[in-house]
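Q: Structure for this?
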Amino acid sequence: MKHSQKHIDSLKSVREKLPKDEVLFELADIFRLFADSTRIKILFALKDEELCVGAICELVGMEQSAVSHQLKILREKCLIKFSQVGKTRLYSLADSHVSDILQMSAEHLSEEA
Amino acid sequence: MKHSQKHIDSLKSVREKLPKDEVLFELADIFRLFADSTRIKILFALKDEELCVGAICELVGMEQSAVSHQLKILREKCLIKFSQVGKTRLYSLADSHVSDILQMSAEHLSEEA
DNA sequence: TTATCATATGAACAAACATTCATATGAAAA
DNA sequence: TTTTCATATGAATGTTTGTTCATATGATAA
């Protein structure tokens, strides 16, 4: 027997409050999107303005290909969307949730004493 | 010349609003901690209660070693702390910021239509 | 002291990931 | 239609990361 009965009992109530695995996976998936400095920079750049891919490349200082790959990831997970104007695609945040998260996280950082 | 002058001009103002690279790296680092389902499960488990390592293992259904490795990461990044009671270590969240983030992220998910 | 229990840690390995390079698509201009 | 421009994508590669296995540490009980 690996663990005492006592601490197994107390686990029941904790386990009940715990989000389901499925939910935890989803959450981790979302956080993972913000867990890369290129992507988070892209998201901040799009926070207030629509931008084409070339502009995003300039801003993040990365090659067009690298940026496009990251844009694809952000698109597939519905964090960003685009509207096509001629040959160029104007990217923007998909909804206000994303900018809320960015806003909060930036505030969180500046609070650190 | 890769990009038109027009969109380079408009970049200036966007670039000024952009957090510094250093800040973006820090942010990505923090998000990365939440970007793994084992770690996020551990954090949720500790949200309301102090738990020893054995209990955490039971809850997340992972081996002691795997859990200890993740605890180390969370400790080093100051998301959790512990108090030692005899041989056992009682882990808990380091501060309320962490549970705030968990709370918000869970709410965010349940909002999704 | 020695044995035992709870936890930690180093090394190894596989899986996931970000970037690059080369090339493809697809829209507009020539 | 051919060329050019903006963006996308597949394959290859190096790096990072999570888990496992084996072992270490460090506290208590015997």
